[in-house]
Amino acid sequence: ATSEKLVLSERHGPVLVLTLNRPKALNALSSPLFGELNKEFDAAQRDDAVRAVVLTGGEKVFAAGADIKEMKDKTLAQSYKENYLASWAKITDFTKPVVGAVNGYALGGGCELAMMCDILLASPTATFGQPEITLGILPGAGGTQRLTHLVGKARAMDIVLTGRKVKADEAERIGLVSRIVQGDGKECVAEAVKVATLIAGYGGIAVQAAKEAVNAANNLPLNEGLRLERRLFHAMFGTADQKEGMAAFAEKRKPSFSHL
Ligand code: CO8
């Protein structure tokens, strides 16, 4: 059982489905688990046949946070020297689209990992939260930053300072998730694969550029963001996919993108 994989991977055509697999600990995020997850993303980045990724914890729980048992005896010196958590945001360097599917708990680091996805689907069972304050700490991987960008200061303060849980319907209302998928966890994962497959069918360069431009909105002032958007837009005229997409429209047929 020690050799059991902490991250399962399965291909559905151009979509790679990655499933966190530590059910006994509610998918608590440990360094070994992130090691495996980062390896999967590195391989997916290099593999041209992978055009999109679905990230899920499966049908019952997304992730109940960082592994508290692994963290509890850490010292300041240790965590600082190893730059603890730095490698836990590597998936944000991934340039292809990531669709998250959240069922059950997405707490602490689980919520932070979910927020690193580009599109986030949730089933009605999804429960988000940043309970770090109840452990004598604060969020360490985006729970004060990405969350605030997503839902605004008033709501982020409410969530981070109280540690309260946020149910799926509230999460959708405040903009923490993209869509609720009715039904059980299976349907949520299936819908995520569907969404990822749809995006995988578009021109890969345009998808990558669109992702880059939307992400820039969080990091750049508006004028710089608009400039980047326009430059990326200009760049599309150098791609085969732009010629194909527009020719197909004019000829009333479906485009066949080469991702070039
Ligand atoms: N770490 C380690 N083990 C955990 C964790 C965790 N975060 N969460 C659950 N487990 C374990 C439990 O200890 C238990 O193990 P055992 O059977 O050996 O006792 C098993 O999973 C099942 O858990 P419960 O019996 O508690 O299940 P319940 O259904 O009663 O409760 C809860 C579910 C409400 C989710 C509860 O388990 C809980 O509150 N968990 C802790 C949630 C939490 O505080 N998370 C925040 C952790 S701090 C953090 O994430 C810092 C962020 C760091 C950045 C991460 C980068 C992405």
List the defining traits of the structure above.
six-stranded mixed beta sheet; 260 residues; alpha/beta; binds octanoyl-coenzyme A; 43% helix; globular; 11 helices; three-stranded mixed beta sheet; 9 strands
At a glance:
The protein is α/β, with parallel strands linked by helices and about 260 residues long.
Quick one: biggest sheet? 6 strands, mixed
The level of helicity is 40-55%
Structural class call reads: alpha/beta
Oligomerization category of the chains in this entry: single chain
Low-confidence stretches: none
The run of helices and strands is: EEHEHHEEHEEHHEHEHHHH
Rounded mean pLDDT score: 96
Q: What characteristic shape results from the CA principal axes?
A: globular
Q: CA-to-CA gap between the ends?
A: 43 Å
**Secondary structure tally, helices:** 11
State which percent range the strand residues make up: 5-15%
Number of strands: 9
How much is the radius of gyration in Å?
A: 19 Å
Hetero groups in this structure are: octanoyl-coenzyme A
Order of strands across the main sheet = 1-2-3-4-6-9
Question: Could you explain the architecture of this structure?
Answer:
The protein has 260 residues and is of the alpha/beta class. The chain is globular and about 60 Å long. 43% of the residues lie in helices and 14% in strands. The protein contains 11 helices and 9 strands. Helix 9 runs antiparallel to helix 10. The strands form 2 sheets. The protein has a 6-stranded mixed β-sheet, with helices on both faces. Strands 5-7-8 form a 3-stranded mixed β-sheet. Octanoyl-coenzyme A (CO8) binds next to helix 2, strand 5 and helix 4.
